[in-house]
Write a structure and sequence with these properties.
The chain has a single domain (8-126), classed as Gcn5-related N-acetyltransferase (GNAT) (Aminopeptidase, 3-Layer(aba) Sandwich), CATH 3.40.630.30. Helix content is 28%, strand content 29%. With 127 residues, it is of the alpha+beta class. It contains four helices and eight strands. The protein has helices spanning 8-15, 68-77, 91-99, 118-126; strands spanning 31-35, 38-43, 46-48, 51-53, 58-59, 82-87, 103-108, 111-116. The longest helix is centred in the middle third of the chain and has 10 residues, at 68-77.
């Protein structure tokens, strides 16, 4: 397995999640999310016209609630203006992004775009 390889069982678990939409063409851009030395999820860091994104972000259910989304933002986007689209009803993602310094920004069809300005990102990364 290469340093950026995501185990097939993690990808399979993400595919059954209602809020995760994966595209095969971007597999090489995904980065692992680690916990206790194991790959327990992934993110997809990339620039957008509105800011830097890590989505989709996926963490295996048994590892949720440990601050791994915040850590992913610290590792890949500290000090950057960031945005994240969160579907209505994805309470776990809302909590994780709020803990990473995000606030609701724009209402969209079926969810909200959340935003974290660069200064907030730097503050969360130092906390």
């Amino acid at each position: 397995m290469t340093p950026h390889e995501i185990p097939p069982e993690v990808i399979a678990a993400a595919r059954v999640e209602p809020f995760i939409h994966l595209r095969g063409k971007d597999l090489h851009l995904r980065r692992p999310i680690l916990c206790e030395g194991a790959v327990v999820g992934f993110c997809h860091p990339h620039e957008t016209p509105n800011g830097y994104r890590l989505g989709p972000i996926f963490v295996l259910p048994e590892f949720r609630g440990r601050g791994l989304t915040r850590v992913a933002y610290e590792e890949h986007a500290a000090g950057k203006l960031c945005v994240a689209y969160i579907h209505d009803g994805n309470v776990g993602s809302e909590k994780a992004h709020a803990a990473a310094g995000f606030v609701r920004w724009r209402r969209g069809r079926g969810g909200w775009t959340w935003k974290r300005d660069a200064a907030a990102g730097a503050t969360v990364a130092r906390a």
